[in-house]
Amino acid sequence: MSGDFFNNTWLYLYHLRNKCKLLNTLIMVLCHSDNRIFNTK
């Protein structure tokens, strides 16, 4: 039972990390888009 709990926790953290990576990529894209908009103004 403790093994399942450990696996579930690891999977949860792994998915959380992937989501954060996705979020960071989105934020980077948004920031670059903003910079381009500001540069053209």
**What proportion strand?**
under 5%
H/E series:
H
How many strand segments?
Answer: 0
Mean pLDDT over the residues: 84
- Backbone structural class: mainly alpha
Span from first to last CA? Answer: 60 Å
Rg: 18 Å
Oligomer classification: single chain
Number of helices: 1
Uncertain runs are none
Biggest β-sheet description: none
Fraction of residues in H or I helices: over 70%
Outline: rod-shaped
Structure, described:
This protein has 41 residues and is mostly helical. The chain is built from one helix and no strands.
Quick structural overview:
By secondary structure, the chain is mainly α.
Topology:
Layout: H1 2-40
Question: What structural keywords apply?
Answer:
mainly alpha, 41 residues
